[in-house]
Design brief:
By secondary structure, this protein is mostly helical. Helix content is 62%, strand content 4%. It has helices spanning 2-54, 61-64, 69-161, 167-258, 262-273, 307-318, 358-378, 394-431, 442-469, 503-514; strands at residues 525-529, 548-553, 560-564, 570-574, 578-582. Strand 2 (548-553) and strand 3 (560-564) form a beta hairpin. Residues 337-351 have a biased composition (Pro residues).
């Protein structure tokens, strides 16, 4: 029994240590995953701070430069990295919920279950030990009483054989021996009963109770191992679930690099900064050997003026764009161009420079051109106070006037819609007086009418200024673009207007065409939606990912592109939400 008890105790200790080691492993894995989630959260936080650090501030110079594809591509990369950081945060959140919290809760249940099973095993063992002690006490008592009975029997027999002993002594010794023998028999029976009880309880303990407890502990430990294995798998699956979205982020970064168009960036820069002035003509050779000869040159420009007077005009007009007082506004970007001022058939007369040497004239021209080189670094967006934008170069003035007309037209359309709505509401009130008083709408209707009248007046005013500036210029195209192009026409290009054309007739013909019934503009390219766009704002149009739309008007630098569906619906979409391919 002592040996069996030792073996049992040894097995219980082994199982106790093994199950405790398993629970410690679960707790260790939970701590490991927690530290991993902290790393992911810190990584995501650092990525977000990084993208915020390099993202352009609203209204800053960097934001205005996003009209160029290489700047926009970098902005797209920052947006994709921000989305990537969100996926890292999602990994940390899912790991915390599905692994850490779940395993911690399960670990508490296992600890309680293990404690219950070990307590039951300890109680069963203590009960068996108590029964064994009773058996051992009964056995020792039986042994002691049996020896005492043997001694009493021997003494009775010895007294009976002693001749000197009296009959009373003999009788007393026999009674004592009989009593001891009876007590010994009772102890024997009690020992046998305790032995039977212990054997039965021992059999129950080793063949029923302990195997059941060990089986439950085994089942508990196997369930722990299975749950822990699932946690191991979740560690990988949690990250694998967001891999498709992370892949899309990386694809977006690659797409941003693919969308960079160096040629288009050059064209955008040219269209943004071209002034519309003509290039200066060649300086005529002055032959002093034959006296004063004021012959005209076909390639010269302007009326006969002295060099200082001519250069003075250039300083005040032609190159005024780059003066500090009137920097170029960069808010508009439209492909309008300026028709050149027609010249007589034999060309304008050449300017006469009198006795001024040629080197002096070139030096003076160079002085006026020099500021244009550094002006690309110092352009800033400033507010324009001049109502008619007459301080701007021709091309820039037309752009600003056209933008102002578009803004007024949109505002006028809003007022017209409001007027129509108020009229309908007034009709409803007149038919159903209980819904409201029609007279209460009179102030609003009057105010709306006044606003419409004011906006129409402003629209007519700006349209007349635009006509004076050369119209919209939609029909004029340049055949070539280069960084040294000043926005003037190439006389030999097919898109240039011939010198024989009447300038005033061309301007007013162009201007009148704008107010005739507008035809549907031909698409200038196509675009494919990269993301879903609800188009809930006024002037926008909804689109679904993968939808192909026709491009009607390209991005003018404000981040919006005008598109059209096959059914004729038009509206604006974010340029970054689509891949745009323009017709060449």
């Amino acid at each position: 029994a002592d040996c069996l008890d030792f073996v049992l105790q040894d097995q219980c200790d082994i199982i106790d240590k093994h199950t405790q080691s398993g629970l410690d492993l679960v707790e260790k894995y939970v701590k490991f995953v927690k530290e991993r989630t902290e790393i992911e959260q810190n990584y995501a936080k650092q990525l977000r701070n990084l993208t915020k650090k390099y993202s352009p501030k609203r209204g800053s110079k960097e934001e205005l430069e996003c009209r160029f594809s290489n700047h926009q591509a970098f902005l797209d990369i920052l947006n994709e990295m921000n989305d990537y950081a969100g996926q890292r945060e999602l990994i940390a959140e899912n790991m915390m919920i599905n692994i850490c919290i779940e395993l911690t809760k399960y670990l508490q249940e296992l600890k309680q279950e293990r404690k219950t099973h070990l307590s039951e095993a300890k109680k069963a063992q203590q009960s068996l030990e108590g029964t064994y002690k009773q058996l051992d006490n009964s056995k020792k008592r039986f042994e002691r009483e049996w020896r005492e009975a043997e001694k009493a029997a021997q003494y009775a027999e010895k007294t009976d054989q002693d001749l000197n002993a009296t009959k009373a002594d003999v009788e007393k010794a026999k009674q004592q021996a009989h009593m001891r023998t009876h007590i010994a028999e009772e102890c024997k029976n009690d020992y046998a009963l305790q032995l039977q009880k212990y054997n039965k309880e021992q059999n129950q303990f080793y063949f029923t109770d302990m195997p059941l407890i060990f089986s439950r502990l085994q089942d508990m430990d196997e369930r722990r191992i299975k749950k822990l294995a699932q946690g191991y798998i979740l560690f990988a699956d949690t990250e694998r679930q967001v891999m498709p979205i992370i892949g899309k982020c990386l694809e977006g970064i690659s797409r941003a690099g693919t969308n960079v168009n160096e040629k288009n960036d050059s064209v955008v820069l040219i269209e943004q900064h071209k002034s519309g002035f003509e290039r200066p003509g060649d300086v005529e050779f002055e032959d002093y050997s034959q006296g004063i000869n004021r012959a005209s040159s076909d390639s010269s420009l302007g009326t006969p003026k002295g060099p200082l007077e001519l250069l003075g005009k250039n300083r005040n007009k032609t190159f005024r764009l780059f003066n500090k007082k009137s920097k170029l506004p960069s808010s508009s970007l439209s492909p309008f161009s300026t028709p050149p001022t027609p010249s007589p058939a034999n060309g304008p007369p050449s300017p006469k420079f009198g006795r001024d040497p040629l080197s002096y004239c070139l030096k003076e021209i160079n002085k006026t051109v020099k500021p244009r080189i550094s002006s690309f670094r110092t352009l800033k967006r400033t507010s324009v106070d001049t109502e008619g934008f007459t301080h701007l170069p021709p091309e820039q003035r037309r752009k600003r006037l056209q933008q102002k007309i578009d803004d007024i037209s949109k505002e006028l359309q809003k007022e017209m819609d409001q007027s129509e709505a108020l009229g309908k509401m007034k009709d409803v009130y007149e038919k159903n007086p209980q819904m409201g008083d029609p007279a209460s709408l009179a102030p609003q209707i009057t105010q709306t009418a006044q606003n419409m009248e004011r906006l129409r007046g402003e629209l007519n005013k700006y349209e007349s200024w635009l006509a004076e500036a050369g119209g919209r210029g939609d029909s004029i195209r340049y055949s070539t673009h280069s960084l040294n192009n000043n926005g003037a026409h190439n006389p030999n290009s097919p898109g240039a207007i011939s010198d024989d054309t009447d300038s005033s007739q061309a301007i007013y013909t162009e201007f009148d065409d704008d107010f005739e019934e507008e035809e549907v503009a031909a698409p200038i390219g196509q675009c494919t939606a990269l993301y879903n766009f609800p188009g809930s704002s006024e002037g926008t149009i909804s689109m679904q990912e993968g939808e192909v739309l026709s491009v009607v008007e390209e991005d003018k630098g404000d981040g919006w592109t005008r598109v059209r569906r096959n059914n004729g619906d038009e509206g604006y979409i974010p340029t970054s939400y689509a891949t745009i391919t323009l017709n060449k």
